[in-house]
Amino acid sequence: MWLVAPLVPGAIREFLDGIGIEYSEIHEATFKEVAERHAYALRDHAPTLGSAKQADTFRNPKTNAAVRSHNGKFRNSLTPEFRSKLDRLKDSFPNGYRFLSYPVHNTTRIWLHSSVNVHIYCGDSFIAYVKVGGDTIEISPRFNNQISGGTHDRNEILFSKIDGLIAKHDGFKKGWVTQRYDSGAYVLRQPAPQEFFDDLLHVIEEGQAALEKKV
Predict the structure, then answer these.
(1) Residue-wise burial string across 63-81, b where 16 or more C-beta atoms lie within 10 A, e elsewhere
(2) How far apart, in whole angstroms, are the C-alpha atoms of residue 165 and residue 33?
(3) How many domains is the chain partitioned into structurally?
(4) Which of 75, 110, 129, 205 could form a disulfide with 103 if both were Cys (CB 3.0 to 4.6 A apart)?
C-alpha cells in the first residue's frame, strides 16, 4: 500500500512508518488532476497547500528553539528508489540516515526532492545534491540536471561554511570525510558524529533565515 496526498502531517507519517506503509507528498494541482481523471469529486472547502495553517513546530538541533514550519509551498517528494537507498543507511551509517531523514519526519523549512539521489532545499534555496551510497553520503554544491521550479541555486549557504564545520569536528584528521576536488563534493562516512550533522542543519536554516531578512 502507498499513500499519496498533498500533505501528510507529522503524526500521520509516524503512524505510517510504524505499520510499514510508504507515503509521498505531491503538488495539489497534480492531486486534483488525478482526482479529475478518475471522476472523483474533491470537497471545495478542503484546505490548499498554500493556505493550510500548520501549528506543528520542530526543535532546531542547535538552538533547541521551537520553530514554525514553512508556508507549505515546497514539500518533500521522495521516490521509492531513493527511500530504499536511504533505508539501507539505517545500519551502515546511522547519523547520515538521521540527517537525511530529518526533513521527512519533522516540520522544518528544509525539504527534499529526489529521483535516484536527492536535492536538499531550504525554503526557496537549493542547498546541495546528495548521492547515497551503501555506507556513505556524498554532498555536492552542484545540482543534478535541474532544480525545482521557483527555487534558486544558493549552495553557498552551506558550502561557504562546510570546511569550517569539518575542521571543528576533526573530519579530515579522523578520516570520516574526503573531498572530491574535481566537483567540490564531500564524501561522508562513519564515524561522522551527530553533532556535525546538527551543525549542518543549523547552518542551512540560519543561512536561509538571514537571507530572507534581507529581502
Answers:
(1) eeeebebbebebbbbbeee
(2) 44
(3) 2
(4) 110
Extract the C-alpha cell encoding 69: 514550519
Rounded distance between C-alpha atoms, residue 108 and residue 102, angstroms:
8
User: Do residue 138 and residue 59 come from a single domain?
Assistant: yes
Distance CA 176, CA 187 (A): 8
Q: Report pLDDT digits (tens) over 175-211.
A: 999 999 999 999 999 999 999 999 999 999 999 999 9
Q: How many CB atoms lie within 10 A of CB 44?
A: 5
Residues of the chain with pLDDT under 50: 44-71
Do residues 58 and 161 share a domain?
A: yes
For residue 197, which amino acid is it? F
Residues 125 and 162 both lie in one domain = yes
